[in-house]
Amino acid sequence: EVYRASTYAPVNIAVIKYWGKRNTTLNLPTNSSLSVTLSQDDLRTHTTASCSSSFTDDTLSLNGSPQDIAGARTQACLRELRQLRKDVEAQDPQAPKLASMKLQIVSENNFPTAAGLASSAAGFAALVRAVADLYHLPASPTDLSRIARQGSGSACRSLMGGYVAWEKGKQDDGSDSLACEVAPANHWPEMRALVLVASAEKKDVSSTAGMQQTVATSTLFEHRAKEVVPKRMRAMEKAIHDRDFAAFATLTMKDSNNFHACNLDTDPPIFYMNDVSRSAVRMCEAINFSHDKLVCAYTFDAGPNAVIYYLDEHENEVAGTFKGLVGGVKGWEGKRGQAVKDGAK
Ligand code: DP6
């Protein structure tokens, strides 16, 4: 007999960035972060997890190619999930003994992997959710965020929809380093995200390596983690609760720029944004200037692709203008999304 469960997990894009770990094994961050979950129709991972006593090995595939399942991060997630299943089996002698069976995990992304489009976030969130469903675990999205975080830090924010905070926590074992909902998507459903793909190539410096180089060498980063982010987290939560787009936009752009400044302050310096990225910044500035108020905000992760946040009422001006750019500048490709109602399911 083969037991099976399937799930979709969405991509999330941080507006207050996670960058830097205080514990690299458990992926415990130096600062808290906050993200918006994007629509599953646009950017998502679909994962099917199966187990059977007839399987001989744990296996993992992504977009049809076999992947290394022995990696420490994947193993950490599977170990935690199997332990929770063992707890279920210990309480219910009738429950099938799934924890001891080998797992087959099959994932598909509908977007370029490792191009700075948060593929690891959706990937680990989907893996954890799919195995948790397969095991019928009585775990909440926040419980599962503790596990997904060990796969990839940003993945813990993809287990829920809407506006999500990852509180850095204080404990050494990471038990309080969890994601929680700041507001559901329907609190501010007018939010839109336009993903501008400047390059779908694999990035130069991985987030994992880049952030630890920043922690080791940047004094600007020390200031960011201690002084800048804690205040900004509270201000961003308030902007979201108040549905104050101008405040949301100011904080989002400032945080993206502060994060990229820390990369520049890293030794050797790290450049994720390129000329095409900078043209998106200027375009955003021009649109805001012509409206005499903030109607769009850019943010960049560890890659050159831009994500532009705006409200539905400005769809024509914002998406329309960027579509002009998409046509005009080689290498750009636009994709639109909106905040979703649910996280991984
Ligand atoms: C710039 O979550 O990919 O996207 O924990 O090492 O897997 P690991 O890093 P990862 O880093 C994401 C960094 C970021 C900002 C963010 O998503 O908050």
From TrEMBL:
<keyword id="KW-0456">Lyase</keyword>
<protein>
    <submittedName>
        <fullName>Diphosphomevalonate decarboxylase</fullName>
        <ecNumber>4.1.1.33</ecNumber>
    </submittedName>
</protein>
